[in-house]
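Milestone M4 deliverable, item 7.
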Amino acid sequence: MKIAILSDIHGNYTALKSVFKEAKNLNVDKYLFLGDFTGYYYETKSVLESIRKLDHVMIKGNHELLLKDIINNKINIKKITKKYGSGMEYALKHLNNDEINYLIKLPSRKEIVLDETKILIAHGSPWDIKNYIYPDSSLKDKQRCLNGDFDFVFIGHSHYSFVYEYKDKVLINVGSIGQNRKHGGIATWCFLDTDKNYYEIKKTKYDIYELLNQIERNDPNNKYLKNVLLRN
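Output delivered:
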């Protein structure tokens, strides 16, 4: 089975379309999504609609927790907009109630078996959805991620991709589709072929200028949203 593992799309439908095109060329059978479908950018609805047409498994990320807290009036959305841009406001304006409930009720982690390959998917660390695991995180934390009867553990959240192998197990942070924080305009994700026991971090280029125009219309004073796309 050929599997694509994606995380941290953050409403960046432009990047997601480019990844789907490459995944189709690779004859991907199944998609695993590790959360953070919303936040930052503006096309959460298109992201969700396109995903739900696929053979997929989804879990939530910390931005889905933020979405729930905003709905429950635990966080002021203006505070989120100031920090992250108006992507969350845009999502709440365009998603219907069923779509919002679907996102916030997703599980925080999931164990699955595909072609006898045992897989754990989580957003942050397997024990904490908000915990960041970076390429330079401690060996203790990386090895803790691999606790349990799994062949592969896939995580996201940090927006920095890496592979760590330990005792015949593999921990892979797939990085981010929507906001790579190392190189702008590149969506990182993982391709896994269970038949060949082959895996690879993929780097898919996409056109940032459509997204820059969206930022200029919606968040013209948010320098971060622009600058992160222009990193090289």
